[in-house]
Description:
Number of helices: 17
CATH class of the largest domain: Alpha Beta
Strand content: 5-15%
Shape: flat
Largest sheet: 6 strands, mixed
Distance between the termini: 34 Å
Helix content: 40-55%
CATH architecture of the largest domain: 2-Layer Sandwich
Number of strands: 6
Number of domains: 3
Low-confidence stretches: 466-477
Mean pLDDT: 87
Amino acid sequence: MYRKKDKNQLSIYNFILPFSGTLHADNRWVKMADIMPWDLIEEIYAKSFSEERADGRPPISARIAFGALYIKENENTTDERTVEHIAENPYMQLFLGLEEYRPEPLFDASMMTWFRKRFSAEDISKINEELYRRMHPQEDKPPEEDPPEDNNNNKGTMVLDATVGPADIRYPTDLSLLNECRENTENMIDMLWEHSSRKGHKTAYSRVKAQKEYLSIQKQRNPRKKARKQATGLQLSYVEKNLETLDKLFNEINNDVFRDRDYVRLTTIREVAAQQRYHFENPTLSIPNRIVNLRQPHVRPIVRGKAGAAVEFGQKMAFSVVDGFTFIDEQRWNNFSEGLTLQASAEKYRQRHGVYPTAILADKTYRNRDNLAFCKTHGIRLSGPRLGRPKITELEADKEQAYIDSCSRNIVESRNGIIKRRYGLSRIMATLPHTALTEAAMNVLVMNVAHLCRVLLRLLKSRLIPFNMHSALVLQR
């Protein structure tokens, strides 16, 4: 059972240090602690615990759990290094809600995975929405059920784009994937063989020969297509023979020898073998839900057509940027057309502001007939040229507006670059499907908090806010 902590923010002057002095109010962690909606975070975290039992060891507080995830993504480091940073930095410990400095680690690094399980990607999106609501308190009103037909109340601009958060896997090929399946099934046979009464050779082929056949092709920089296909067929036949051997062993011994994760891996290998056999016999046909990695079977190839990588392997996300604030409107492992998310993004904008945006800036992918009709109905200007052949009589004002829109769209490209280079979206290290989604959503949240801190700093420098007033009071007024 989870017990909620005191929601009041600890004063930096009451934080006990092992040495003389006090913490500085201008530190970034002090400012970010003022900004965070800890009440909402506590409420979300408490729902993930059972209310049936009140005994047992009390869980780690919501502030420490969420704060540790935030520190990891903000510093773009590993789970182990995050625990070390927290133990070394009193400002981080203040951010986590501690009342005095503690030099020992607060928890084991393995707990970071459980923290990610407690906060889903949807929960992180709720926290992100709450931060934006506090940033714009005057816009906190419900949307109009029947908006006026003239659409004069539309306001604001929304920028749309999509990107991929690549998973931490090697570039997959059919040959390397089947070789990994062969090695895994060989280890499974070794595990079960000692519990059976079978004698003789464990596999129906020579393992040394199979490894040499794989390396003879893998070491070549540009192997011939025929040789590569022949090697793939051999590895596939070895995997299928091993699966037959495993079925015979399962009929003879107790299934308790295998662990749950071994069964999951074996199920994945069976599916990979079926997919590869279908692709080997039908090379011109695509494979739906194609598995490209045994450790992360949920990862799918996302065809992007970019200059650096034509295909990326990870989760695809549809972004919308409003007032410099980034939102995840769609987040999936399977590929999807970002053009189909425009109407849902516009509706979410209406939920936040009460009205539709005046303009939506997006690339040509979003300019389909359904989206154009939707924007025309609600008085939204969708950027880009009209459908069909360009007219000779096209006005210079339209060309100028198209150029301005293309320049304004740079903000979403900038956000994509920042979140990948600075906050680690270029390689998601979490391996579970739900924790990887949470890590990507946390990257967006951390980037938004940094943007919010810059906005408050500009207000302070312009003397629109008294210098000695905390940023949290500004957000909550």
